[in-house]
Amino acid sequence: MPLIDSIISLNGIEILLWDATESSDELISLCHYRNIKVDTSILPKAESRRREILAEALILSEYFSTPKVLLHDENGAPIVDGYNGFISISHTHGLVAVAFSHYAPIGIDAERISERVMKVRGKFINDEEAQFIVATDSTENTLAWTAKEAIYKLVNTPGASLRNDFHICSRFRKASVDHFSADAYIEHSGNRRLISISSILCQEQSTILTAAVYL
């Protein structure tokens, strides 16, 4: 069964998590048990990617109580056949997250906390953000990275720049030991739109999960 959690500061969003510690063969068996059709001939060869795809199918089946077909729009964003709401998907090192909203577009991103993200902060942190996002803090930089990636998925605009078009307004506020929030905005093609950011620290997986929605 997946771990289930909600980003409580954002109404109408439900997030299902699956920590895919099973092998792809075990996940295929789970899919067959739930009457999910799996064409193994088109699954990727990489074991990690196979597990992610199978976990996505299982999460959709869990949420809708029936197998669903995952499709993608012209920009590659996920959509579910027959579902009028909005979804967003992220995965990192076997952890698969799928967010659902009946009311408005959403974007989510998940990332394991590590020093790796700090080595590329110049690609997503702009000069203003560098004043308050501490360069040596792996958690803060992972929060910022997932926020920028979640915004990218929310706006669904190919070519937008994480560093130049998306702006985090201040340090992340700590609502509790595991929950953080921040305000942000996108400024692209002369237009500005405000965005709310909310994050969960998944302690067991040492992972930050961040959602972005329009204000």
Tell me the number of strands.
12
Point out poorly predicted stretches: none
How much β-strand is present in the residues?
A: 25-35%
Number of discrete domains: 2
- Order of SSEs: EEHHEEEEEHEEEEE
Shape: globular
Q: Structural class of the helices, strands and pairings? A: alpha+beta
What is the residue-mean pLDDT, rounded to a whole number? 91
Task: Note down, in words, how this protein is organized.
The chain is an alpha+beta fold and 215 residues long. It has two domains: 3-105, 4'-phosphopantetheinyl transferase domain (Ribosomal Protein L22, Chain A); 109-214, no CATH class. Helix content is 21%, strand content 33%. It is built from three helices and twelve strands; from the N terminus they run ββααβββββαβββββ. It has helices at residues 24-33, 47-64, 138-155, and strands at 3-5, 13-19, 70-72, 78-80, 86-92, 95-101, 107-112, 166-168, 173-174, 179-188, 191-202, 207-214. The strands form three sheets. Strands 7, 8, 9, 10, 11 and 12 form a six-stranded antiparallel beta sheet that branches. It has a four-stranded antiparallel beta sheet with strand order 1-2-6-5, with helices on one face. Strand 5 and strand 6 form a beta hairpin. Helix 1 packs parallel to helix 2 (47-64). The longest helix is centred in the N-terminal third of the chain and has 18 residues, at 47-64. The radius of gyration is 17 Å and the shape is globular. It starts with a strand and ends with a strand. The mean pLDDT is 91.
